[in-house]
Amino acid sequence: MNAETATQRHTALYEEHQKLGASFTDFGGWQMPLKYDSELAEHHAVRKTAGLFDLSHMGEVWVTGPEAGKFLDFALVGKLSAVAVGKAKYSLICNEDGGIIDDLISYRRAEDRFLVVPNAGNADAVFEALSERAKGFDVEVENASAATSLAAVQGPNSVEILLQLVPAAEAATVTDMKYYAADEVTFTISGAPVKLLLARTGYTGEDGFEIYVPNEHAVSLWTALLEAGKAHGLVPAGLACRDSLRLEAGMPLYGNELSLEVSPYDAGLGPVVALKKEGEFVGRSALEAQKEKGSQRKLVGLKGLGRRAGRSHYPVLKDGRQVGEVTSGQPSPTLGYPVALAYVDVEFTEPGTQLDVDLRGKPEPFEVVSLPFYKRGN
């Protein structure tokens, strides 16, 4: 089980991170590795070879029962009943006002069984919301977060690394797995076969996999992956480079780009909201009204034209007047220039628009660009 104190939580891999010399940071109440040596080196490893992340702070909520799909259609904004077994879907859970409680991925493991994965700081809130919304549906909602660990192998060499631990008879399950799909795969760890859930998903903009593992096997899996990855450039990677990677890929972070005060339409997530699906769902009326009204501000990508980076909460200016605010920003290790995500008044959101970011009293030039900043293969 994950150790927990009154002030912080530790994943089952905490001592392994200590052995590797990790620097730690608080994230959603968890003590998580920020970096092991150089966050820049870890970032480049994920882009060029592979990185290994501990994501055990994420939540795992199982929804099971004859009405599982129907229930999730009601509880989330997407149409989860249309997801095929073995596939996954990105969605949102909103409140009645249309505010975003969390963004999450749901995996359909059987006709009557889904795994819903919320973000670390929102795992309890999502479980509570799903439990409350389940009343009247023939489903069971189980919070398996405390008993489950999650490791992610991300980068161009991910497939080759996993094939070192998977029997030849199951190699095609790994190599042929599509993006946003999942399946059970046998891993050989500590000399013994263990069936684990493998998903071809991630948060870095690279090809990669996420592996759900019971806590009792987490350390053995982690050490086996590190050993298998030695010849393929695999390095342990922390949250610092995970943030720079997801920013380059234009992926939102809850608490920065997403919150209860943000509409999915402002965040560019309108396509995630399935207003055409039949039946009521939580937040439908508010979301319909938001779409009809239109957004006053929208999330955009900003490319720095100078050398200085914008940071969260820095004002975005047009001719000296504030027209927005940065939500995330830093220098891009891959691209070599500063990048930022920001909410900007809609009239200034066209790509090519010239704006400034107020860097502590000094305006720095930026340009609105299409997202993502970085796309694998380009």
Give a written overview of the molecule.
With 378 residues, this protein is α+β, with helices and mostly antiparallel strands. It is globular, with a radius of gyration of 21 Å. The strands form 4 sheets. It has a 6-stranded mixed beta sheet, sandwiched between helices. A 6-stranded antiparallel beta barrel has the order 14-17-16-15-18-19. Helix content is 21%, strand content 33%. The N terminus is likely disordered. It is built from 9 helices and 19 strands. Helix 2 packs across helix 8. Among the domains are: 146 residues, Gyrase A, domain 2 (2-Layer Sandwich); 83 residues, Beta Barrel (Elongation Factor Tu (Ef-tu), domain 3), CATH 2.40.30.110. A hairpin with a 2-residue loop joins strand 1 and strand 2.
What is this entry, summarized?
The protein contains nine helices and 19 strands. With 378 residues, the protein is α+β, with helices and mostly antiparallel strands. Strand 16 and strand 17 form a beta hairpin.
* Amino- and carboxy-terminal Cα gap: 42 Å
**If you consult CATH, what is the topology of the domain at 14-58 and 147-247?**
Gyrase A, domain 2
**Bulk shape:** globular
- Measured on Cα atoms, how large is the radius of gyration? 21 Å
Order of SSEs: HEEHEEHEEEHEEHHEEEHEHHEEEEEE
**Spans where pLDDT lies below 50 across 5 or more residues:** 1-6
Query: Helicity range of the residues?
Result: 10-25%
Number of helices: 9
Give the full name of the CATH homologous superfamily of the domain at 14-58 and 147-247. Answer: Probable tRNA modification gtpase trme, domain 1
Going by CATH, the architecture of the domain at 14-58 and 147-247 would be 2-Layer Sandwich
**Beta strand count:** 19
CATH uppermost class of the domain at 14-58 and 147-247: Alpha Beta
**Average of per-residue pLDDT values:** 96
Report the portion of residues in β strands. Answer: 25-35%
Function: The glycine cleavage system catalyzes the degradation of glycine.
Subunit structure: The glycine cleavage system is composed of four proteins: P, T, L and H.
Catalytic activity: N(6)-[(R)-S(8)-aminomethyldihydrolipoyl]-L-lysyl-[protein] + (6S)-5,6,7,8-tetrahydrofolate = N(6)-[(R)-dihydrolipoyl]-L-lysyl-[protein] + (6R)-5,10-methylene-5,6,7,8-tetrahydrofolate + NH4(+)
GO molecular function, one term: aminomethyltransferase activity
